[in-house]
Amino acid sequence: MLRNILRRATLVCLMLALASVAQAGLLPDSTFIDGWKLPNGLEVRARHIPRANSVSITVAYRAGSLYESAQREGLADLLAELAFLAPAGDTPERTRDEMESIRPLGWALKVNEHVSLLTEVASPPQLAGVLHQVAARMRGVTVSDEELRKALATVKQTLATRRFGSADHSLYHRVRDQALGRTDEQILRRANAKGLDGITIKDVEARLRTLYVPANAVIAIAGDLTSVDVRRLIDAEFAAIPAGTATPEAPEPVLRGATRMSQWDGLGQRTAVVGVITPALSDSLHPSFYLAALIAGAYLRDAYGAPAAPLTSRFQYSLLDEPDLVRFYPALGADTTTTAGISSDLGDKLDRFSDTAVERTIIDQVRFSVTWLLGGLMSPPLARRAQEEPSVLTALTGSMATRAMWRGDAFWDQYRDRLERTTLGPNVFVPWMSAPEHQTILEFVPRR
Fold first, then answer.
1. CA dihedral angle for residue 24, residue 27, residue 31, residue 32, rounded to 10 degrees
2. Predicted confidence (pLDDT) at residue 334 exceeds the cutoff of 90
3. Helix (H) or strand (E) holding 119
4. What is the rounded distance in angstroms from the CA atom of residue 49 to the CA atom of residue 396?
5. Are 15 and 26 in contact (CB under 8 A)?
6. CA-CA distances (angstroms) from residue 66 to 9, 76, 96, 321?
7. DSSP 8-state class, residue 335
8. Span 200-221, average pLDDT
9. Which pLDDT tens digit goes with each residue over 239-285?
10. Please, what are the domains in the chain?
11. Is the pLDDT of residue 150 over 70?
């Protein structure tokens, strides 16, 4: 009993330490959420996970690929690489290989269309030191000729691998290129990093000063915070950094249906992806569509069977990365010799899915399995995993930072509420998913 009283007292101290902040609250899963904004515009989000053995720190900048300068494709990746690895103040430079020993509990560098996410995982005693280093990088990194050369080499390799590396990765990235209406020349330009030719230190420093600033950033922290005065730490390290200016959110890209067949060297058999363009994220029905897509994806995994190499999955859908495109990877039979045949076969499978009665308990389980990434409750098994597995905390801080940076917490809270309340059956959206105008199909065939 005494131990429980002490733990409650400690949690009360945590609440008081994070007082005068926005949207604070103790959730029924025993986690505590908080959010506030510093005078320089830096948004802060925190989630206390009792007894977690690590702490994840993610900084999100509104600096994704939608914010690249004209004819500077790949610049978002380059800026993130430099911001994460180049030296800053008393914080030395580091390499990707060194990160495995510097941050053995985990780290991640991720760039999507909307945000760039820089994540480091620390043990609780390391938190103050890691935050100091994160703040030093936010104040500004030092870009030398050598740092720029190394970053360019890494980014060029990354961009080439996305579109012409393994066939499964290429399908994933190029089906979106196709939906965006990019030509072969534009795809090659991106893969070859032509937009980075001739870039200078002056160029990258100017963009870093514009985008990688507190007013254009969110820092998210998740872990056991009972022994940490989070607000004092954040204020001490980040409050004095010059604010800069918040960058307005970029317009959402427009996707269109299309079909394409391409030859691929070294491919043992035909393989394809069907990208289904979703309703607009702002549409009040999008949460219902999201739930339906998750359930349909699980059904199609069983209907098509385990994927054969080079595929590793039958279904991919990341709400916080690309909410406008669902990816299905069908099994190609002898009768699916054209992209039209692929679409027809997928439509047949979806029609069978629509005739299948999905139990309400399954719908609720699928729904509950994703709401934690939208600020909802964590299930007891997931909470236990969060205590032991840093990767769960990494996913959590990435989602926290993305939601606050892109569209804002109020939007995603409303989205989650609609997701939790929807009563529409998953089969309602089968006609949408089956419609050719909502599909972009890319097939790879062995090169003869």
1. 10
2. no
3. strand 116-122
4. 11
5. yes
6. 46, 8, 25, 12
7. T
8. 97
9. 999 999 999 999 999 999 999 999 999 898 899 999 999 999 999 99
10. 10-238 (3.30.830.10), 258-446 (3.30.830.10)
11. yes
Helix (H, G, I), strand (E, B) or coil at 327: strand
Q: How far apart are CA 213 and CA 215, in angstroms?
A: 6
Residue 342, exposed/middle/buried by CB under 10 A (0-12, 13-18, 19+)? buried
Kindly report, residue by residue over 1-20, the tens digit of the pLDDT. 334 433 443 444 444 333 33
CA atoms of 174 and 172, how far apart (whole Å): 6
pLDDT of residue 69: 84
- Which residue type occupies 215? A
> For residue 264, which amino acid is it?
W
DSSP 88: B
Q: Which residues of 132-142 are buried (b: 16+ CB within 10 A; e: fewer)?
A: ebbbbbbbbbe
Please give the pLDDT value at position 5: 34
CA pair distance 191, 206, nearest whole angstrom: 24
Residue 147 corresponds to which tokens in the numbers above? 């740092």
> Cβ contacts of residue 169 below 8 Å, gap of 6+?
161, 162
**In 278-427, which ranges are E strands?**
315-316, 325-328
Look up residue 237 and give its amino acid. E
Which element (helix H / strand E) includes 432?
Answer: helix 430-434
CA dihedral sign, ordered 155, 159, 161, 164: negative
Task: Note the pLDDT tens digit of each residue in 102-146.
Answer: 999 999 999 999 999 999 999 999 999 999 999 999 999 999 999
Helix (H, G, I), strand (E, B) or coil at 218: strand
Q: Which distant-in-sequence residues (6+ apart) come within 8 Å of 103 by Cβ?
A: 120, 121, 122
112 CB contacts (<8 Å, ≥6 apart)? 64, 65, 321, 322
